[in-house]
Each structure stands twice: as structure tokens, then as C-alpha cells.
Amino acid sequence: MASLHPKTPTSFQVSPDMVGMRLDRVIYEWNPEHSRTFWQRQIQQGHVRLNGRTVKSGTIVQAGDEIIIDFIEKPAPLPPLIEGTVDTEWIVYQDDYLIVVNKPRHLVVHPSRGHENDSVVHRLLPLLPHQGDDFRPGVVHRLDRDTTGLLVLARSEDVKAKLSQMIQQRQVHRDYIAVIQGHMTPSNGIIDAPIGRHLRNRLKMAIVKNGREARTRYYTLATWGSQSLVQLSLETGRTHQIRVHLSSMGHYVVGDPLYGPASETGPGQLLHAMRLAFLHPVTHVPLCFWTYPPSDWGKALCDLKDPKIVSEFVFHMSSSPCPDIKTYQLLIDGLGLAL
Q1: pLDDT of residue 82
Q2: 128 and 178 part of one domain
Q3: Domain CATH number, residue 105
């Protein structure tokens, strides 16, 4: 293919020698002008169709399948990633295969438009498998810019592939806590609603009929006044999933100006990736990491009075390497509240 940015949709058929290969690998081998990561991104964004349907990067192709690449607007190139000094202060765990960090607020995970010069990737680049035009080295999942908490990154392409597969198979447990407006009814449950791009505001995601499957489990930990503290577990990992699901129920994350009122002020959205648990992809040793929210949560909740404990435990899994954490303990030790 002469160009990766055709003015009209470009298509080709899968040859017999490509049977059994992943869709992203087939496209990359057909046109290696861009990286395989680039093509995975195009597939995820819906620019690639297999037999007329949008599918996942890992979909296995068959002989005669038609792959269609729609028009892709060529963006201005991002500046090259520059290797600098590793920021070790926020590294929670590190070995030869992976890194776990406690991401601060106001930091994107990887370079993007408007965030070309600082990201998690920039700060860890010497430890990541960086090559070519890949602006997401080691990245297997993301946290929004103002979401704080735990994030795992791979230190090699092989481990990246293994971790990505584990996430797809729901073998990586990602648990969050959030302060929301209002009280959930029922207090515990599952939000099962497909998510896609908002029809009018392209910066937002929304619940849409033909969106991608999305499920979030929630548990109310405590309530006070007009707010609640909830624990949330992802069964899928869509963009803005927790924020969209909670907002769709009428209970936006406090401090979220995109899915809550535009007048929301404070340090930022009170959403924190508190726990991360999985089997090590190489050694198969069970790993569990947890962190309290940043100190700005306590400042934002300094006027909290008389919380009602709804659930005794934030996390209670005696069969895992993760410790039990009580809700009362989180409120006092984690948020610095004087109850």
C-alpha cells in the first residue's frame, strides 16, 4: 500500500498463508510503514473493518476475509521521546519484567495531542521497551489524566503481550474507590451498559446502543450528607468507563467537570485506582499492591461529618495475597479524617 492515509477506503483479502494470524499482525505485515501498535490503535478506534464489522486487534482471520481500512486523517507527528532521568519516587514495585507505579494527578499515561512533553512514559522511558514510533512503550492499560493510583507497565514486548492478554481475559484485578454525588440504589450492584463516543461532544464517552461492552461492579462503603464513598471493580476497560457509568446513574464522581457540573471545583476528580492484583506473567507469583488516595482527598473532604458505614470492608479477600482493609481504616488513615 502506497500510503497509510488513503483518501478512500482501501481493502484487501486475506491470503491462505495468513490464515490463523491476528488481524493487527496481518495488517502490519501487509504494510509495515507504521508500527503494529499504530495499527492496533486504528483498529481500536474503528478505522479498520473485517468483513464489514469493527472487531478487536486479536481477532483471528480466515482465508478470503475482507479487511477494509477507512480514511485516516494524518496527524502532525509527535516530537520524539527523549530519554531522561527516571522518576523513582512513585515506583511501587519493579523487577526485570514489569513496573508498578502510583500515578499522580494531572499526568497522562502516554504522549498525546496537548501532552507531548510529559507523561508516565516520559518519566519511565529508560526502563521501558522503546523503539521506533511507538509512543506507548510498555503501556497495557491507562488511567485518566486526573485519576490517581496504581498502574502496571511492561518492560519488554513479550511481557506487554502477556499482560495485555491477561487484562483481556480479566486476570488482572483493578479496584478503585471514588467519592460520588448522591447515594447508589441499590447500594451494591453491576452497571452493565455499552460505551461509545459521545455523538455531540467528541471529548466525552457515553452510553450508546451499539457501543462496546462495558461492566462495572460497585459497592457502597459509606454515605454522608449528599455524597457516598464507593468501591468499584472493572470487568472491562473502556475509556472513562467508571466516570461514564456513574454519571449515567445520576451519580457523577465529585470533582469531575467533564461528566459532572462544569462548575465542579477542587483538586480534581475523587477517583483513585487503589488496588491492583494479578499473577506475575513470568514467575506466576501472586502479586497485590494497594495505595491510599493522595492527600488532596482529605482536604476536599475536610467538612465531612457523621459518615454512615455501609460496608465494613473496602477489600476482604482472605484467599488472596491482598490484605483486608476496613472502611473505617480508610476514612481515618487513608483520608486523614477525624471521626
Answers
A1: 64
A2: no
A3: 3.30.2350.10
Handedness of CA 173, 177, 183, 187 (dihedral sign): positive
Average pLDDT over residues 169-195: 95
Q: How far apart are CA 311 and CA 325, in angstroms?
A: 11
Spatial separation of the C-alpha atoms in residues 190 and 216, rounded to whole Å: 6
Our count of domains for the chain comes to 3
Told to judge if 144 belongs to the known catalytic residues of this protein, a careful annotator would answer: yes
* pLDDT reported for residue 187: 96
DSSP string, 260-297: S-TT--SSS--EEEEEEEEE-TTT--EEEEE-PPPTHH
Q: Residue 68's beta-bridge partner residues?
A: 11, 49
Which one is catalytic: 144, 146, 175, 256? 144
Instruction: Assess if residue 202 is contained within a domain.
Output: no
Nearest to 91 by CA among 166, 152, 159, 175: 152
Rounded Cα–Cα distance for residues 78 and 130 (Å): 15
Contact 227, 180 (CB under 8 A): yes
Q: Which amino acid is at 322?
A: C
Count of positions (residues) in the chain = 339
Grid cell digits, residue 134: 511507538
Structural domain span for residue 44: 10-69
For residue 205, being part of any structural domain is answered with: no
Task: Compute the half-sphere exposure of residue 35: CA atoms within 13 Å on the CB side of its CA.
Answer: 12
Q: Does residue 75 fall inside a structural domain?
A: no
* One domain, residues 181 and 293: yes
Q: Work out the angle at residue 322's Cα, subtended by the Cα atoms of residues 320 and 328, and round it to the nearest 5 degrees.
A: 130
Dig out the grid coordinates for 58 from the structure. 486479536
- Has residue 299 got a pLDDT over 90? no
Q: Is residue 82 part of a domain?
A: no
pLDDT digits (tens, 9 = 90+) for 37-66: 778 888 888 889 999 899 998 899 998 899
What's the CATH code of the domain at 35?
A: 3.10.290.10
